[in-house]
Specification:
By secondary structure, this protein is an alpha/beta fold. The protein has four helices and five strands.
């Protein structure tokens, strides 16, 4: 439960829209804000490439969905879903806090005991993450599908916590 004892669902879209398909997660949360908006039990977060600065947004979440591009060797636009606790977290040598990856955010969440009851990553295989490139058609085509998957997951958690 969140700090107030109430369910708090967080939807976190991460990525850099200046890097082609890498902006996928940000685009999904933008669309979710338009379609369903936030509510007392739901926070939709445009995490951009904030890295370590995401931690305060995550610490009170009961449930968490992270949306991002994931290079898993699939076809561009292919969608995957992982339990976040199955993704390795590690901290490497850094020169700047701007070099923090989401693997390191996961490691810091574990270190700081930020552990939602359930958390998932919904990702899409990118085609192009080049500077200044537009999002590929394959990845654009996955936006609506992932928005629907996120909505379905929200409803599952809400129904499971109905009193």
């Amino acid at each position: 439960m969140g700090k107030e004892g109430k369910v708090k669902i967080g939807i976190l879209g991460i990525g850099n829209p200046l890097l082609g398909d890498d902006g996928f997660g940000v685009e999904v949360v933008r669309k979710l804000k338009e379609e369903i908006g936030e509510s007392p039990d739901l926070e939709i977060i445009d995490g951009g490439s904030l890295g370590i600065y995401l931690l305060p947004y995550l610490e009170d979440k009961t449930y968490l969905i992270v949306v991002d591009v994931v290079n898993f060797g699939g076809k561009p636009g292919e969608i995957v879903k992982f339990e976040l606790n199955k993704i390795p977290g590690f901290i490497g040598l850094k020169v700047s806090e701007h070099q923090i990856t989401f693997h390191e955010v996961i490691a810091l969440m574990n270190l700081l005991d930020i552990k939602p009851i359930e958390s998932v990553l919904i990702g899409v295989q990118p085609k192009n993450n080049e500077w200044g490139a537009e999002m590929s058609d394959e990845v654009k085509g996955a936006i609506g599908k992932v928005v629907e998957k996120v909505k379905e997951q929200i409803e599952i958690w809400r129904k499971g916590n109905a009193t």
